[in-house]
Design goal:
Distance between the termini: 31 Å
Strand order of the largest sheet: 1-42-41-40-39
Strand content: over 45%
Number of helices: 1
Structural class: mainly beta
Number of strands: 46
Helix content: under 10%
Shape: elongated
Oligomer: single chain
Radius of gyration: 31 Å
């Protein structure tokens, strides 16, 4: 008993000595000058890698993306194309040489059975021989009906017979590589602006026209027009892209958002167009949104390239479908580089490539299960040094600019700061929550905050706190810049432990 008494007496003397010299004060004072405010200063985001001209792109404005059979990524811009091997970009431009690109603005890229790359531009068609690394250009020739009928190409698509279908601002044509001749399809509405061509089953093509969507049979030449009147964009473009999924066709437009042409399996026919512009939990609408491209990832999500950023749609076939937008965050160089997203493409390694008006973006979809959060308010930006959640819903974290609680369900963040902005108590280094008490380890010491009442007390002052932990016996272990401390909150007792070596 005597030994225990002496030890307690010694510990009390040590605590009193530390308090007197101003190094460590336990529950020394109450501080209620904490300023709090609520808002959406934190948002979920995705981790992108950005590529610009400084990394080797010929131009930052991306207009087409394609992966060839050898794994190379081809990127078409408004000033040339490039081939990316995972390490560096090789650029190709229109120049004065005889064998060169017909035009620098590359709108579409595809590959034939001989592994040659075909590029559609606003000045003609190009074939790139990958073995010889040479270009062959095809342009409209006056008085030659078998030449390319129009140079402004919007889309390219090979069929299973090796013929190349070409959509231009003036209609549809097909190129036969065997005899190198073009045949123009003059029948309405295939003689209007063709924005996109994709393959379907049983030798059918889906083709967008000014009048709507055409399902065209390539061997018989017969087709069905599904008329759809949509609002054009400022340049008169009505349709941008399509995606066929389980026989349903999804269509992106220039001014009316997203549509679906559903296939009725029981009746073996297509139904009426459906708008897919309303989403659960989203107060806005895609009705007046320009959507440039669409694709689907292996996890079932649909991705949209829009003028308002990259969008991810979940459960698209259900009434409760949801949409999430990912936009450029000026505070993060790992957000998407620009909100004007023109092209999206998922390669064979499950990487989503996003071509924007300001660079190429790479997103590894295998990392998609991990959620990444960024600050959206410059006043709140800070390094996160401590994080804790007891219930999985409210997440507390400390930064070098105060501490925060994030409501996972609502997306609302509440921030807390000591009114004196120069206070070292605003610079957090560790964080621990115990019932309704929040312990904050800072450059100024330990601040104890009552979550229910908002009352705060200084538990330790004059130390830099790096780590805190409560053990099974209710002991608080506190790592500081001058050793390890141990104490119990109910005894208001803090004991400096031996230095660990």
């Amino acid at each position: 008993m005597l030994v225990r008494f002496k030890l307690s007496f010694y510990n009390c003397l040590l605590l009193l000595f530390l308090s007197l010299i101003g190094h460590t004060a336990l529950y020394g004072q109450s501080t209620n000058n904490i300023i709090s405010k609520s808002g959406a200063c934190i948002s979920p985001n995705l981790l992108f890698e950005r590529f610009y001209t400084s990394e080797g792109l010929p131009e930052d404005r991306i207009r087409s993306i394609f992966q060839d059979s050898r794994g190379f990524l081809w990127v078409g811009t408004m000033n040339g194309i490039c081939r990316y091997d995972g390490y560096e970009f090789k650029k190709y431009h229109k120049n004065k040489q005889e064998a060169h690109l017909a035009g620098n603005w590359a709108t579409s890229i595809c590959e034939d059975a001989n592994k040659n790359i075909w590029i559609g531009t606003k000045e003609g068609l190009n074939k790139f021989d990958v073995r010889q690394e040479t270009f062959t250009s095809f342009k409209n020739e006056k008085n030659n009906p078998k030449s390319l009928f129009h140079n402004l190409i919007n889309t390219l698509q090979f069929d299973r017979f090796g013929k190349l279908w070409i959509g231009s601002s003036r209609g549809l044509a097909v190129f036969d590589p065997a005899d190198k001749t073009f045949r123009t399809i003059d029948t309405a509405p295939l003689n209007t602006s063709i924005g996109k061509i994709i393959r379907s089953a049983n030798d059918f093509l889906w083709i967008t026209t000014d009048a709507g969507i055409v399902r065209y049979h390539i061997t018989s030449g017969k087709f069905t027009t599904f008329r759809l009147s949509v609002r054009p964009n400022a340049y008169g473009e009505r349709f941008w892209s399509m995606l066929e999924e389980d026989k349903d066709l999804y269509i992106t437009t220039g001014g009316n958002g997203l549509f679906k042409l559903p296939f009725n399996k029981a009746e073996n026919k297509y139904g009426d167009f459906e708008e897919i512009n309303q989403y659960a939990g989203y107060s806005g609408s895609l009705d007046h949104t320009q959507i440039f491209d669409i694709c689907k990832s292996k996890d079932g999500y649909f991705w949209l390239a829009t003028e308002r950023g990259l969008a991810k749609v979940e459960q698209i076939k259900l009434p409760g479908r949801t949409i999430t937008f990912y936009k450029k965050n000026e505070l993060s160089n790992q957000s998407i580089s620009n909100d004007m997203v023109y092209k999206i493409f998922i390669d064979r390694t499950n990487v989503l490539w996003c071509g924007t008006d300001q660079g190429l973006n790479k997103l590894d979809l295998y990392l998609n299960p991990f959620r990444y959060y960024t600050f959206t308010d410059i006043k709140s930006k800070g390094q996160v040094r401590g994080i804790y959640s007891k219930n999985g819903s409210d997440v507390w974290f400390g930064t070098n600019n105060g501490f925060y609680v994030y409501d996972y369900s609502s997306g609302i963040t509440k921030s807390f700061q000591i009114s004196n902005e120069a206070s070292f108590f605003n610079t957090n280094r560790s964080l621990f929550a115990d019932d309704e008490q929040l312990w904050l380890g800072t450059l100024g010491g330990v601040l104890k905050y009552d979550i229910r009442t908002g009352r705060s007390d200084v538990a330790i002052e004059g130390r830099t706190i790096f780590a805190m932990l409560k053990d099974g016996k209710d002991n608080m272990w506190i790592g500081t810049n001058n050793g390890l401390f141990k104490g119990r909150e109910k005894d208001q007792l803090l004991i400096k432990s031996a230095q660990f070596k």
